[in-house]
Structure formats: C-alpha cells, structure tokens
Amino acid sequence: MKRIPWIPALIIFVLGTLAIGIPLDHWNTKMRDRTGFAFPDLQNAKSESKARQVLDGWKDPKVRAEIASTMKLDLVFPFFYAPLIALIAFRASRSVRHRWVVTLGAALAGGALAAGIFDLLENATMLRMLADDDATRWRLVQAFGMPKNYLCQAATIYALLAHFDI
Prior knowledge:
By secondary structure, the chain is mostly helical. The chain contains seven helices and no strands. The protein has one domain (6-163). The chain has helices spanning 6-35, 39-43, 48-57, 61-76, 78-93, 99-132, 138-163. The two termini are 32 Å apart. The mean pLDDT is 90.
C-alpha cells in the first residue's frame, strides 16, 4: 500500500477548512445581526423552547433559504476539518516515545474522523428541523453535537501535548 504524502494532504485540508470556515463564520455573523440568531444557536439550543425561538426567528422564507444554504455548506466542512485534525493527531503520535501513547494517538485520530460523521448527522438533523419547522429534534442535534465536540477536542489536545512531548 502506497503512503499518502502528508504535507500535500495537510495543505489541502488546511485550505479547505479555511475556505469553508471563514465564509461560514461571516454568514453566521451576518445572519445573527439580521435575525438575532445564527445556526450555531440552533446547534446549541438546550431545550425545545429555545430551538422553537430560533426557528421562529427565521420565519421569513428568504431567511430560511439563506440559513439552509449556510447549513448545506456546513455539510461539506467535516470533510476538511475532521481529516485535518486526524492527520495532525496521527502525525503527532509518531513523534512520541511510548507505544501506548502512539496507540492512543491513532485511536484519537480515528475519533476525529468519527467526529466528522457526527457533525454530518448533526447538520442533516438541523436541515430537517428547518425544513419541517420542527423544534422537537433538538435532543437529536445535541446527541450528535456533544460527541463531535468531545472527539475533536480530545484529538486536538492530544496533538498539542504530543507535539510538545508533554
């Protein structure tokens, strides 16, 4: 099996993450200024009433269309950031001395990829909530979002610690 050159892959994943992440942040700021809510507010809704409040803030069909477009772009984002975090964690694991730490790094790199899958499920659920105007799925969004966040954070912290050989 031929090895994938990691530097070109790193460049592609970094550029893809920036090319999607920066516009997402811009559009979310613009939408929050216009309506009081951006799609992270729906991601982080901690109750059905909060999710309903966010969806009600997006009643205008033009606003709904813009939010849906932004959410669709966010469906592509995991294909860049998750492999980026996984690649960094995996590469960092190769620089440590203890075998168990290397194994942990490989597992956390896999966890970063799993986080991308959770993110896709979270985004698809939010798109469905928006299309159906259904705030009852907020627990499902939370069920996908929490492991996504923890898996990404664990792999990132591992990569930083391994990089500094702590």
